[in-house]
Amino acid sequence: MPLSKASQSDLLLVLVTILSALSWIFSREAVQLMPPLLFMCLRFLLAGSLLAVLGRRQLSRINADQAWRAIRVGLVFGFAMCFWVLGLTHASHVGEGAFLTILGVLMVPVIGRLLFAETPPVSTWIAIPVALIGLALLALKEGFRPETGQIFFFISAFGFAFYYALNTRAANVSSSRSKSGELLQKQGVPPLALTTLMVLTVSVVTGLASLVMEPWQSSFENFDPMLTVWIGASAIIGTSARFFLQTWAQSLSSTSHGVVIMIVEPVWVALLAALWFGETMAPMQLAGCLLIFTALLVNRWNAVRKVLKSVL
Prior knowledge:
The protein is mainly alpha-helical. It is 76% helix and 3% strand.
């Protein structure tokens, strides 16, 4: 029996979470060897170039409106990625950063309500206070003293929330009414074309930010050969494959809430960080991460309940 589109979307998003977790590891290694924003520019430029070759047919067929919608998603995502990589650079704990960043998923229904008049489920309003308590526990170190990396991750979470919401709408057919009341229908942007333009736009955004904020000379004077490995792995595995699969998955599901399955991403990141970097969590950190994860489960409760029923 063939899988439904919704099931295909869910399975693809699970794979996306694993690739995304690997990307955290590759990126952490890279930002220790070169300026972080410059790394992001090179990573997304390489990934976008590869995707452009693979998606040249789709790119040649999209219209100006579709191109602009893809670029708009890329601008929002570029903003989020700037703060994400700065958070990764300053973070004392990669696993904790993943739980802070995934808060963006919790914000998606709220953004959908503010921008697109979508109605968030009741579970969202229950989950938000729980997540805020978890966030507070992560920042409680000798009083309320959030670290620089935590602040950057939290800001990036807002950017990711806007990105998830816009990406879902860009990938799907949408309808709107003109001033005269006529129903207008916009074609969804093909997944490969959308991913390509989005990724290249992120490269431009992070490149401009790097040009303004970072010195490049030291990167070339103290070049480490392993840097090519981390950039290549981040570009091909953590960017090209990951974002194409994510966009494809979102094109199979018309609801922005489907992306909430990505709550498992920080779990993969924490496990990989423990294996790769030998990270451990203090009791306060574990409690904060557990509350954030609980909030995400509450927010996705209808889906969780269906899974539990099917298993039990």
